[in-house]
Amino acid sequence: MALTPAQQSQNVALMFPIRDHNPSGRIPYVTYALMAANIGIFLSMLPISEDQQALNLFYYNYALLPRRVMAGDGLGALLSSQFLHAGYMHLAGNMLFLWIFGDNVEDEMGHMPFLGFYLLAGVLSGLAQVATDPTSYVPMVGASGAIAGVMGSYLLLFPKAKVDIFVFFIIFFRIFPIPAWIMLMLWFGMQFVGGIGTPAGVGGVAYWAHAGGFIAGILLSLPLWLRLGGPRFWRVTDGHPPHPEAQYILPSSLPKVKRK
């Protein structure tokens, strides 16, 4: 089973993004619908969560099993596994990343093209995991691969967008903004290093699914980036979404007192 991008980011001094500064120009209906579908399917699974036999059968039918795929069976799981999650934190972490990065990518692609992109990135991420561990019978579930594709697209389209990072180390914690490319490249590097350092057949984190989804997201977004102008698009937008930036300044609830 795959951990979420947030859970993996927490392996390094509990560092993970909590929001970006880039509200979309229109309502991201598809992003919200994908979040609702993931949450709804997870809640519908709760009645069988304590029945291990029923849960195993459910995962056999709908989770991605590389050995089944290599045998030409269970191909539908390349789609269905994208909407399954192994626990509350698994779901919450994935939905956080989708909420942060999905709206701006959907805004540039359009609603239905974004949906096709998301699902295709998820399929390609699953195939990347199958290719690197073809004999595994460990079920792979989660939206992480598809969301990694969204993150790859975000990196290509908006590399300098500001993302607020929460860092907690023992008793120190702080939220501060960094350019998206730093956070996203650090995350991708963790997947690549984790994939190389993890023996085949070991369950827990589908590193190559995440790395594969990230690369797929960049490649699938190249036609859009070129259509927008390629490097000229970066020069015009300075690597940010073409919308006013959110500042997140909260108004004070204290009354103002004039000096005498």
UniProtKB/TrEMBL annotation:
**UniProt KW keywords:** Hydrolase, Membrane, Protease, Transmembrane, Transmembrane helix
Limits of the Peptidase S54 rhomboid domain: 78-225
> Molecular function terms in GO for this entry?
serine-type endopeptidase activity
**The UniProt record lists the keyword Transcription:** no
Q: Which residues form a coiled coil?
A: none
- Bilayer-spanning residue ranges: 29-48, 83-102, 114-131, 137-158, 165-187, 207-226
Membrane topology is: Multi-pass membrane protein
The protein's matches in SUPFAM superfamilies, at most eight in alphabetical order, are given as:
Rhomboid-like
GO cellular component: a single term:
membrane
Q: Which Pfam families match?
A: Rhomboid (PF01694)
Q: Tell me where in or outside the cell this protein is found.
A: Membrane
Q: Which GO terms describe its biological process?
A: proteolysis
The record's family statement is: Belongs to the peptidase S54 family.
Q: Which PANTHER family match?
A: PRESENILIN-ASSOCIATED RHOMBOID-LIKE PROTEIN, MITOCHONDRIAL, RHOMBOID PROTEASE
Q: What is this protein called?
A: Membrane associated rhomboid family serine protease
